[in-house]
Request: fold
Amino acid sequence: MTLTENRAADRFLLHGPVANGKPLITSERVALWWLDLAEIGEGDWGRLASLLNEEERSRSERFHFERDKQVYVAAHASCRGLLTYCTGHAPQSWQFAAEDYGKPELVCPPDGPRLRINISHTRGLAAVALTVDRDIGVDVEWLQRSAPTEKLAESVFAARECEILAAVPDSQKIETFLSFWTLKEAYVKAIGKGLSQPLAAFSFDLETLRIHFDDTVRDDPENWWFERYRPGPDHLMALAVRHPDPVRLKIDATPAPLEYLRCLAAI
Ligand SMILES: CC(C)(COP(=O)(O)OP(=O)(O)OC[C@H]1O[C@@H](n2cnc3c(N)ncnc32)[C@H](O)[C@@H]1OP(=O)(O)O)[C@@H](O)C(=O)NCCC(=O)NCCS
Reply:
């Protein structure tokens, strides 16, 4: 499932939700959940929606297509569920405020840990990544889409990335394109700038997962850690975390425990 085996997984989420009030998440840990919509039963939707707050519930009602509503509900229920799993606070108790470029950040008490979270959703899959203090971004994409990969890459990717994409056989174009795309989106989401950050100003090496910045970007590759995942046959996912000493980071990436979310909704 992890596409790079350069780090032993730390399964700190395996031992169950927070106990004795000691938060599971620290500035050295990242918790990453994904939720495959195919796993969610008809009877689950109402329960998942009950984990959302009023504002999210009313936003979810405004989607035109059921498919978009469901993935929104899955993403935001996972987000609130992961926060509860790691901290013990009630799912609906969390408030978000939008930063300058629209990145939702948790409102945390000034004397407590500054939790940082990011959500991504695509057709059939939702993901959420949580840590403390560190800039964090996650991106998921559906693999089955037919995109004009090379043309699109030429308008948004760095020259080196376009060369690599041009060199791979047609059968690998979509996967290579989306491998770059998810990493790039994870980075722009971590820094909070979204697509207002030009995507051609930085590039990735898909083997080492190192980032390279051109002269227009004031950032340090040494402070970044990236991971790639294949959460299922139809999806790619990438994670970006800013950390002054990335080797200390422990990342637990796992499917969201649906049974836990169901129980949470029943409380
Ligand atoms: C952030 C952005 C890259 C999301 O891309 P996407 O692949 O369509 O969506 P994803 O599913 O991966 O992520 C969406 C989630 O990211 C979060 N998000 C929104 N803005 C964000 C930002 N600037 N940085 C990080 N995360 C952001 C939200 O939680 C959102 O989910 P929600 O709307 O259900 O709450 C893109 O929408 C964007 O750049 N927005 C900022 C506005 C902007 O610069 N627009 C430029 C065009 S005018």
Q: What stands out?
A: Helices lie at 44-49, 54-61, 66-87, 149-156, 159-167, 173-190, 258-266. The mean pLDDT is 93. The two ends are 32 Å apart (CA to CA).
